[in-house]
Amino acid sequence: MMKYTRLGKKDFIWIAAAVVAAAVAALLVFLPRGGKGPDAIPAPNAAGRPEETPSFPERDPGGAPAESALGVRVPATREETAKLEAAMREIGELCRAEYLRAEKLPSDNPGQETIGQEAVDAMEAALSGAGYCVENSDAVYPDYLENAEQLDRFWEDVLKEQDAAAAVWAVTPSGSVSCRVFQFADGKGYCMHASGQWDDAGALELAYLEKKEILYWDMTSSGFLYQDTYLNRQWTAAALLRLEPVDHDLYAWTERYIAPIGYHDVNLFLLDWDSGDFGDVCFNDLLSRMYRMEYGDYLYARDYPYSDEPFPHSVIPAALFESVIYQHFSISLDEFRERAFYDAENDAYPWQTLNGGNIAYYPELIPEVTQVTEHADGTVTLLVNVLCPDQHTDHLFEHEVTMKTEADGSFQYLSNRLVYRGKTELPSPQARIKALRFAAED
Questions:
Q1: How far is CA 301 from CA 217, 297, 337, 351, in A?
Q2: Which residues of 196-221 are buried (b: 16+ CB within 10 A; e: fewer)?
Q3: What pLDDT sits at residue 16?
Q4: Where is mean pLDDT largest: 3-7, 13-17, 54-58, 415-419?
Q5: In sequence order, which residues have a C-beta less than 8 Å from that of residue 439 and are 6 or more positions away?
Q6: Which of 287, 290, 297, 298 minimizes the C-alpha distance to 256?
Q7: 254: closest CA among 384, 417, 411?
Q8: What is the pLDDT of residues 104-143, one digit of tens each?
Q9: Residue 126 belongs to what H/E stretch?
Q10: What distance, in Å, lies between the first and last C-alpha atoms of the chain?
Q11: Residues sharing a CB contact under 8 Å with residue 405, sequence separation 6 or more, in sequence order
């Protein structure tokens, strides 16, 4: 059998950070690319409704640290502000021509515009060519840092408890430029978030600046992990800055077969099973994920009849349910129907959409296929490492997925096996429908 393995340090990192500005129309807030996957769903409050995200706190006029739900804010000094203003102007000189040359296109956000990925790439190349540590973005693959050795040197100084600073720059889809300045001073860590805005004269001016205390940071085998925002169910608190590009072949396996299923409120990859014994795998919960894999669209409960008997559920026609799920597993139809609560009288299956009564909250999880092993019988085994930035780990657990793929694009999942798990509790593997839940082991 033949193996394909990624060389170098682990590097599949999902960059997830939220920089929220005060609601001032003249200011441009930088929102880093990336975000939550299709299975990262906000948990409801006690009333079953998503909680509102609080607005960003006002700057503390007294100059003292201001603690809020979003972290501990520290006023930037005049010297720090002046340096960032000068840095923005210098950055503007480097990439002004590319920005002015770029075609300004309508954005999905009202009142904003986008310059397209090609123009973003050109601006990033100008910055990296000048020696800046800058995020290399891509329309397909996750961002990574150019000139990342600057962050490596910064971390070496931190470990020596020496005062140090390092800046990471990024070009936003609108053509603006943002920056995160990591600082270590007097034994404490800080991060300054800054964003620039082009004025009418074509100059890049500092438009927004916020400084916060670091709550946690570390240099892992996958990249630089930091957190300056308190964990909350409404946002991702920690971010991983990838220091190297992903392996494109391995990433394709992740995006095609692992990430669309995920780990939140589905248990396919959380339990040990194989085609001879499916154990407690819940096929019903896979419906919406596999429907989107099949049709590229969402499944809506409102489009199907609703029933309260014998438990609340949407009534899904058997033809649809089986065409979406059954084809992807090596199982007899009789066993499949028994496991999935097939209703012969109505020729249908029960399905529960996510709601306040069945969501099990867990922070964002990022899968990365790190190895693909081809077998003589035509099957392949994917070794998957799962990262959880908010749990401060790039190695929460590992699992092996064996599957069979065909030239026409069809595929089947044949087994899943957990091969490593750390001390942190994993997401709940229980089914949404209570009648399909299994007895938890002690």
A1: 41, 13, 21, 9
A2: bbbeeeeebebbbbbbbebbebebbe
A3: 34
A4: 415-419
A5: none
A6: 290
A7: 384
A8: 988 888 878 899 999 999 999 999 999 999 999 998 999 9
A9: helix 117-129
A10: 39
A11: 380, 411
DSSP letter assigned to residue 269: T
Longest C-alpha distance within the chain, in Å? Answer: 75
Q: Which two tokens stand for residue 226?
A: 């930091």
* Element spanning 382, H or E: strand 379-388
What 8-state DSSP symbol labels residue 139? S
H or E element in which residue 88 lies: helix 78-101
Tokens of 270: 């959380």
Q: In what order do the strands lie in the sheet with 348-351?
A: 306-307, 313-317, 348-351
Tell which residue, 154, 132, 158, 156, has the closest CA to residue 145: 132
Residue 291, beta-bridge partner list: none
C-alpha dihedral sign at 343, 357, 233, 231: negative
Length of the chain: 442
The residue whose two tokens read 């840092």 is: 145
The identity of residue 195, as a single letter, is: S
Residue 159 has pLDDT above 90, yes or no: yes
Distance CA(407)–CA(92), nearest Å, equals: 49
Is 299:287 a contact under the CB 8 Å cutoff?
yes
- Written as six digits, the tokens of 189 are 């860590």
Phi/psi zone of residue 26: left (φ > 0), alpha (ψ -120 to 50 degrees), beta?
A: alpha
Task: Please give the helix or strand (H or E) that residue 371 lies within, else none.
Answer: strand 366-374
The tokens describing 305, both together, are 């009849």
Q: Which of 308, 329, 326, 310 is nearest to 318 (CA)?
A: 326
d(CA 39, CA 262): 6
